Every structure is written in C-alpha cells, then in structure tokens.
Amino acid sequence: MANFKVVEEAYVKQESVLYQGEVEFEGNQLLYRYFEDNNGQDYYVFVEGEGWVSEHPFIPILMACIGEWGSPVEFGKSGEDIDIDDVIVEDYE
C-alpha cells in the first residue's frame, strides 16, 4: 500500500484556456484562436501560407466581441449571424 501525507492542499497555480472557432468574415472562412491566462490574452487568425498571425482585420472584431460578451462561447451556435456595432470595434483598433 502506498502512503503519503498532504503537506499543503492542492490549488490552482495557473489557469489558461484556448478557444478555437471558425467564422465567415468578408466572404472567407477563418479559423481563429483566443488564448487567455493569468498574464493576459492573445488573439490569432490562421492565414494559409503564414500560419497563426496576430495581425488581421478580423482581430479587432474578435477582441470587441470578447470584450462585450466575455468569451467566444457566447457568440452563439453554428449558423448564427453575429452583429457588433462599428463604434465598439473602433475601440479595439
């Protein structure tokens, strides 16, 4: 029988989450990623031939939507059209 003594109870030291989704933007299908951890957030779009890039016209829109709704999970179900006011997006450009 193995035996050990708990010296300190386990706790979450660091959390991170990576969301990935696909949208249609300006007639093109895009894969996006949103990464969040204790150090901040990162936003990426996959561009064929370049890989995951952090500068793309969709990124301010992604940032604005996450700022308004909290996470990409809140964007809705597949097939839903999502609208966000241009004034809100401008704050993230």
Helix content: 10-25%
Major sheet size, sense and barrel closure: 4 strands, antiparallel
pLDDT < 50 stretches: none
Gross morphology is: elongated
Structural class: alpha+beta
| Order of H and E elements | EEEEHH
Helix tally equals 2
N-end to C-end Cα span: 60 Å
User: How large a portion of the residues is in β-strands, by DSSP E?
Assistant: 25-35%
Strand order of the largest sheet: 1-2-3-4
Q: What gyration radius follows from the Cα positions, in whole Å?
A: 18 Å
**Oligomeric state of the chains in view:** single chain
| Number of strand elements | 4
Report mean pLDDT, rounded to a whole number: 93
Describe the structure.
The structure is a single chain. With 93 residues, the protein is of the alpha+beta class. It is built from two helices and four strands. The protein has helices at residues 59-69, 86-90, and strands at residues 16-25, 28-37, 40-47, 51-53. It has a four-stranded antiparallel β-sheet. The protein is elongated, with a radius of gyration of 18 Å. The chain starts with 15 loop residues before the first strand and ends with a helix. The model has no long low-confidence stretch (mean pLDDT 93).
